[in-house]
TrEMBL record:
<dbReference type="GO" id="GO:0005506">
    <property type="term" value="F:iron ion binding"/>
</dbReference>
<feature type="binding site">
    <location>
        <position position="96"/>
    </location>
    <ligand>
        <name>Fe(2+)</name>
    </ligand>
</feature>
<feature type="binding site">
    <location>
        <position position="102"/>
    </location>
    <ligand>
        <name>Fe(2+)</name>
    </ligand>
</feature>
<keyword id="KW-0479">Metal-binding</keyword>
<comment type="subunit">
    <text>Monomer.</text>
</comment>
<comment type="function">
    <text>Catalyzes 2 different reactions between oxygene and the acireductone 1,2-dihydroxy-3-keto-5-methylthiopentene (DHK-MTPene) depending upon the metal bound in the active site. Fe-containing acireductone dioxygenase (Fe-ARD) produces formate and 2-keto-4-methylthiobutyrate (KMTB), the alpha-ketoacid precursor of methionine in the methionine recycle pathway. Ni-containing acireductone dioxygenase (Ni-ARD) produces methylthiopropionate, carbon monoxide and formate, and does not lie on the methionine recycle pathway.</text>
</comment>
<keyword id="KW-0486">Methionine biosynthesis</keyword>
<protein>
    <recommendedName>
        <fullName>Acireductone dioxygenase</fullName>
        <ecNumber>1.13.11.54</ecNumber>
        <ecNumber>1.13.11.53</ecNumber>
    </recommendedName>
</protein>
<dbReference type="InterPro" id="IPR014710">
    <property type="entry name" value="RmlC-like_jellyroll"/>
</dbReference>
<feature type="site" description="May play a role in metal incorporation in vivo">
    <location>
        <position position="95"/>
    </location>
</feature>
<dbReference type="InterPro" id="IPR023956">
    <property type="entry name" value="ARD_bac"/>
</dbReference>
<feature type="binding site">
    <location>
        <position position="140"/>
    </location>
    <ligand>
        <name>Ni(2+)</name>
    </ligand>
</feature>
<comment type="pathway">
    <text>Amino-acid biosynthesis; L-methionine biosynthesis via salvage pathway; L-methionine from S-methyl-5-thio-alpha-D-ribose 1-phosphate: step 5/6.</text>
</comment>
<keyword id="KW-0223">Dioxygenase</keyword>
<keyword id="KW-0028">Amino-acid biosynthesis</keyword>
<dbReference type="InterPro" id="IPR011051">
    <property type="entry name" value="RmlC_Cupin_sf"/>
</dbReference>
<feature type="binding site">
    <location>
        <position position="98"/>
    </location>
    <ligand>
        <name>Ni(2+)</name>
    </ligand>
</feature>
Amino acid sequence: MSALTIYPANQPQQGNTCRDFDTISEQLKTIGVQFERWEPGSEFISEVEVLTVMDAYQQHIDRLTEQFGFKSVDVVSLKPDHPEKQAMRQKFLSEHTHDDFEVRFFVEGRGLFYLHVDDKVFAILCEQGDLISVPAHLKHWFDMGEMPDFKCIRLFTTEDGWIASFTGDPIADSFPTFEQYLASI
């Protein structure tokens, strides 16, 4: 089940958590974040080809592409046996921003986004069926855990895809890891 915890940025032990989807969506809307739940337009099995995954959610992808002018869409999948899982995790764990806004839809599995907005940090546990958008230039980081297991559709408004500008702020080090967060909710 999805979850949202809002922390004071300087007190990573003092978060308030909610698990109601509508409440999460409304809270995130106040900071310009779109949070939706998608249902597939057709059935598919777990280990399918990219085109089958895209076909299952095509009506949602078409709606967002028309709304935001996305120029590229892909599917990324990471499993616990991936040989570069630690290096990939470290890449996303440092606070960063993007010139493009980031949109991720969790086809399978889950991951934890942290959004740093002024004096607050919003931790959002995204699970299968959740879509989240991270506005351009919003400071954030992502924890996929030590044993990543997810498949996401990614949408980009540029042909270049994922390009990060790291802030150099060590704030992410003081917040719960994916595993610690799951144990706390």
